[in-house]
Amino acid sequence: MLKTWNVGLLLASFLLSIFGTFIVRSGLISSVHAFALSDIGPYFLGFLTVMLIGSVALLIWRLPLMRSENTFESVWSRESGFLLNNLVFTGIAFATLWGTIYPLITEAFQGTAITVGAPFYNQVNGPLLALLLVLMGVGPLLAWRRTVMTALLRSISVSLGVTLVCLVGILFLFGQPLAAIGAAAAVFAISAVLVEYWRGVRLRRKNAGDSVPTAIYRLTRRDPRRFGGYIVHLGVAIIAIGIVGSWFFNTERQVVLTPGQTVDVAGYTLRYERLSETFTRDARVITAHVNVASNGRNHGPVEAHRYTYRGFEDQTTTQVGINTVGFDDVYVMLLEWGEGSQAHLRIFVNPLVTWIWAGGAVYLLGMFVLFLPAPAIAPVTVRAATRREAFGESTAD
Amino acid sequence: MSRQRISIAIILALTVSWLLAFGASAEDVYSERTMELASQLQCPVCSGQAVADSQVTLARQMRDVIEQKVQAGESDEQIIAYFTERYGQHVLLDPPKSGFNLTLWWIPPAVLALGGIVVVLYMREGTGRTRPARPSAPLGDDDDELESLAREYLSPDTDARRS
Predict the structure, then answer these.
(1) Which of B131, B139, B42 is nearest to B93 (CA)?
(2) Which residue of A has its CA nearest to B144?
(3) What is the pTM of this model?
(4) DSSP at A143
(5) Structure ipTM
(6) Rounded to the nearest 5 degrees, what angle is found at the Cα of A385, between the Cα atoms of A379 and A386?
(7) Residues of B in contact with A149 (CB under 8 A)
(8) B105 φ/ψ angles, rounded to the nearest 5 degrees
(9) Which chain A positions have a beta carbon within 8 Å of B163's beta carbon?
(10) Mean pLDDT of A58-70
């Protein structure tokens, strides 16, 4: 079943991407991402239909080849983890599709179109993504086919302990329950990876005398698919923490400043210095120069621009200025400017954005590890009686 | 220090702090409530952008109107109703959870639940076929090490033999 489901998801991804292109080019749904009202709509619809029929036909024709030989053995296995994982991903994809086409449905049934904006996706997909993080915390601790419950409970208790501490800590310090749940789920996922590495490292230290870094390297090198997957999970969880920080704990202020005035945003003191005007080949650029400091330390300048292109003088575009200080992003937009070099600025301080980038780097590292070739399995002599006890009547391979 | 010097120092300190106070104070253009309400409304001429984020003239005017109403003491519902009367329901970024719109909110969880039932049924059907000769005693604690060693060396994480 898993194979069929996986192939189905692959085909659905392809078809949905064609569908998305169709939507933004045909003017069917008005959106900030839609950019053309061209005649290409009907052709895309035809293409989409052909691809849909072809994909379904291919899937049905090849269905016998995808019958799985293994029977499903236990709920507490990595196979069931994969099933749940697929279910949640399919749920997220469906919710996104549903929210996207819903304005069309209301228009068809009720005559008036409503808007489905960010709040819907946050409220529906947010919990599902948190659920994915929780699954990421359990998955690595499950074994193929059947998990030994005592081992599972022991490793989960470590993860759960750390997670609870984090949950209570965030609730106590900051009081935001949703942020606490999101961060706790990410910490749960991270601790599962650390527990797996710790078990392997402990084993190698005992039996091969490796130091901790050598053990980590050797473990990863020996089974790149497993540990590459764990590193990717780690990356995703770090990104999740960055998202929780920058979404729930960001600060925004809109102020009008004269040169020399300062404003305090979330512990940062921003001093508006001056307005300057420069010209590029196509545009006139107005720049607001702002200086960022905190606790007496100067963090450097941040420049926010407004571009006015020749021929389009009544439409100005914004280029945001960002100064990254440690984990935070100080984000400045120039909205309007007036006589006396007054500037209307919109300022955001977004915490933990650096974690999003760092998580991305860890994710890439994990992907690189996944592409490493797995070395040949070194033969290990294990007494026959012990093998039988470990695996039941026969070994997996 | 002589008294003259002390009084000069005090006057200087007061002047500087007065200047600093004026220099440091920056009035927020919009109150927090205004920005919150503005982020619930869609700018009618932009495609999907909130009034809080859009920089077109209409959005700026809407923000000014909201600010005026907030200062006048109107409630959130009154301000939102003012805009829905003039622009219709689609000016709301978050459609009201009533009537037909309930299908928007409840169909994704319903589909997820349906999928969950299918998965559970599939799992039940699978585990019903357990083989009778399987040893039922799980490994004890002291065999954890051996189990991990066996897991690590004897069954690497290859997908090929899985479904």
Answers:
(1) B42
(2) A151
(3) 0.79
(4) P
(5) 0.72
(6) 60
(7) 138
(8) -80, -30
(9) 1-3, 68-70, 79
(10) 80
